Amino acid sequence: MKRFREFIFNEDGSAVVEFVTLALPLFIPLFIYLNQYAYSSDHESSLRTLSREMARAFVTSENDRIAENVTYEVFVKGANILGYGKEISEGNLKYQFECKNQPCISPDNEIRILLLDRKTGKSIAAVEYVSPWA
User: Fold this and answer.
1) Model confidence over 59-87: pLDDT tens digits?
2) Which residues contact residue 2 at a Cβ distance below 8 angstroms, ignoring those fewer than 6 apart?
């Protein structure tokens, strides 16, 4: 009985228990926040890569019609590779392009590709220039 009483009233390790009970509730929200931040950062980086590839495909095309078709193909295939195929089919991920001058494929023209993510409400743009010798 004496050993049981000593075991119950022994304070060895009590600091560890107090630390865990106080600090753990503070660390859980921090881990959740860091996880969400990492996901958001990765998502934005992937969409930025996709928009740049679309802009490159656009400016290296022969004419406007081909440029639009190639850009759409890069959008669909690139999004599927990056894991955004479902977002496209649901209409949550869309794109648009803007040309400073018409026709779009003309020397020194500026092309801007804008990806719109309706799920997060973010938009990501990439700008490329058509070669001066186009």
Assistant:
1) 999 999 999 999 999 999 999 999 999 99
2) none
CB 74 within 8 A of CB 54: yes
Measured in Å, how far apart are the chain's first and last C-alpha atoms? 94
Prediction pTM value: 0.79
The rounded distance, in Å, linking the Cα atoms of 113 and 131 is 17
CB atoms within 10 A of CB 79: 22
Decide if 51 contacts 125 (C-beta within 8 A): yes
Helix H, strand E, coil C: the string for the chain is CHHHHHHHHCCCCHHHHHHHHHHHHHHHHHHHHHHHHHHHHHHHHHHHHHHHHHHHHHHCCCCHHHHHHHHHHHHHHHHHHHCCHHHHHHCCEEEEEEECCCCCCCCCCEEEEEEEECCCCEEEEEEEECCCCC
Whole-number pLDDT of residue 73: 97
Structural tokens at position 93: 């991920």
Neighbours of 95 (CB within 10 A): 20
